[in-house]
Each structure stands twice: as structure tokens, then as C-alpha cells.
């Protein structure tokens, strides 16, 4: 009788996961149908420039795949509004300062960042290692805030940079609460590139790891993206019980030896719990 109930629960969960994936697919199709082509192209220009120091008009034409005449009008408009700027020396284009203004306003208004900052600083004082605050964005881990540690090994990530979801502790925490079908879609979309000999590079091993992460309440990046570095992360929940972000601490492997993992993980989970409470989460 108990087995029958468990089987029914598993079937119901699988059905809910599939319904969510179908809903997300329908939302994506609706977004594509109502998108405005000229705005799409303008955003393409901004995103391409964000990946390069500077680019000429010809280089932008090739990268954005847009006719020179129409692209030039878009560039002039973006330049007029301060989103890109043109060098007087070589005539190349780069991002303008408007991005900094928008980013500053976004960070100041971010309830997640506001709720997390004090707790992040407590971790820094306690451990002295780099503390990260991340969210999931476009199937990647986006760094919302980073407080640099005081020890020699510092990570190269910066606020606004992204990392793969499968090879980071924050990424595993964030995806562990997603439906299995959604994770499989992300794997198909992004792949599972191998960064070190420790990186999880098969769907089966990743799904097993995510199930373990969800059950234990924290994740470890055990030299999976950088040799010699470890990272421990815990989830942050919003008032609706959904994962809003993840907080992590990262540094040299010798600073996070096996016999300290459980203690540090407990601290990370308690920190995530306190931030979650500030966001209105009631356990």
C-alpha cells in the first residue's frame, strides 16, 4: 500500500514537472511572437560590445549579422542615449557609461543583495575567504555581489560575470530545485564542458549530484572549475518558497579541508536561512 502511494506521488511529480516545462515553452513562443526586431538588434549590439573591448562598424556588422545601413542607425541612436560611445582616436565603439548608471540603480534596488550584504560581511570576517551572491540567469550563474577575501587565492569572477551551472557550487544549488526536465533542457542547451578532471560531465552524474544537493541543503564545488579551489554554497528562498539565489564562500582547497566541510556547510545554510527570512521566507 505504501509503495502504491509512493508510485502515485512520483507520477504526480513527473506530471507537474512536464506541465511546467510546457508552460515555459509556451511563454517563450509568446515572447518570440511579440518581440520587436529593431530593439532585438539594438540589444544584440550592446551584448556583443559587452564581450569585447571595442569594435569597428564593420566588425559589428559581421558579429550582429545586420545590414550596415540599418545597423548604423541603431548605433547612432544608442550613442545618442549614452549606451555606447565612439573613440575619437580609432573610430571604434565600446559600451557607454549609461550601463553603469543602470547597473548602480539595479544593485541599489535589489532586495536580494540588500538582504544578503550584512550576512556576506559576517562570513568574510569569520573566514576571510571570498563570499559570492549569485542568481540563475539565461541558464548560467550570474554574480550579483562579490566580497573579496583577504587570502592569496582569489577567484577571477566579477560582479556581472557568469559561470557554468554544472561546475559551480552556486549553480548546483540553484538548479537542484528545478524540475528534472528543465535541467535536462539546460544540459542540451549549454552542454557539460569539462574544466578539470573533477568536473561532472554526464547528465546522469549531474542529476545524481543535484538530488544529493537538494537533500543535504548545500553544494560543494570540489575543484570542478578551478584546480586547487573549493566552494561551498547554500540556497536562499523567497517568500513564496522558491529559490531566489545562492550564497557561497570560495577559496584554496587547503582552507576547506574535508574535516571542516560540514562545519562550513552548516554556517552557509544558516546564513542562507537568515537571508531567506529577510526576504519573507517562513520555513
UniProtKB/TrEMBL annotation:
Matching Gene3D superfamilies: 3.30.450.40, Winged helix-like DNA-binding domain superfamily/Winged helix DNA-binding domain
Keyword Transcription attached: yes
Stretches the record annotates as Disordered: 1-32
Pfam families xref list: HTH_IclR, IclR_C
Annotated signal peptide: none
PROSITE patterns (alphabetical): HTH_ICLR, ICLR_ED
Ranges for domain IclR-ED: 98-281
Coiled-coil portions: none
Domain HTH iclR-type: 36-97
Keywords assigned by UniProt, alphabetized: DNA-binding, Transcription, Transcription regulation
Name the record gives this protein: IclR family acetate operon transcriptional repressor
Source species of the chain: Paenibacillus eucommiae
Species lineage: Bacteria, Bacillati, Bacillota, Bacilli, Bacillales
Amino acid at each position: 500500500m505504501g509503495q502504491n502511494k509512493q508510485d502515485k506521488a512520483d507520477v504526480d511529480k513527473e506530471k507537474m514537472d512536464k506541465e511546467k516545462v510546457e508552460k515555459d515553452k509556451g511563454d517563450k513562443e509568446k515572447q518570440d511572437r511579440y518581440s520587436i526586431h529593431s530593439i532585438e538588434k539594438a540589444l544584440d549590439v550592446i551584448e556583443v560590445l559587452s564581450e569585447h573591448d571595442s569594435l569597428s562598424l564593420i566588425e559589428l556588422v559581421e558579429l550582429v549579422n545586420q545590414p550596415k545601413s540599418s545597423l548604423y542607425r541603431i548605433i547612432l541612436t544608442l550613442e545618442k542615449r549614452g549606451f555606447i560611445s565612439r573613440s575619437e582616436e580609432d573610430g571604434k565603439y565600446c559600451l557607454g557609461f549609461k550601463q553603469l548608471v543602470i547597473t548602480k540603480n539595479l544593485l541599489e534596488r535589489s532586495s536580494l543583495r540588500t538582504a544578503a550584504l550584512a550576512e556576506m560581511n559576517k562570513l568574510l570576517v569569520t573566514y576571510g575567504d571570498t563570499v559570492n551572491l549569485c542568481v540563475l540567469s539565461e541558464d548560467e550563474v550570474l554574480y550579483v555581489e562579490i566580497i573579496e577575501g583577504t587570502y592569496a587565492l582569489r577567484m577571477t569572477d566579477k560582479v556581472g560575470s557568469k559561470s557554468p551551472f554544472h561546475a559551480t557550487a552556486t549553480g548546483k544549488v540553484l538548479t537542484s530545485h528545478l524540475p528534472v526536465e528543465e535541467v535536462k533542457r539546460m544540459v542540451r542547451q549549454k552542454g557539460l564542458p569539462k574544466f578539470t578532471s573533477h568536473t561532472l560531465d554526464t547528465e546522469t552524474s549531474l542529476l545524481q549530484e543535484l538530488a544529493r544537493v537538494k537533500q543535504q541543503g548545500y553544494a560543494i564545488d570540489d575543484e570542478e572549475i578551478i584546480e586547487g579551489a573549493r566552494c561551498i554554497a547554500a540556497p536562499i528562498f523567497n517568500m513564496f518558497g522558491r529559490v531566489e539565489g545562492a550564497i557561497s564562500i570560495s577559496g584554496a582547497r587547503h582552507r576547506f579541508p574535508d574535516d571542516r566541510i560540514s562545519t562550513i556547510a552548516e554556517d552557509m545554510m544558516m546564513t542562507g536561512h537568515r537571508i531567506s527570512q529577510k526576504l519573507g521566507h517562513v520555513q
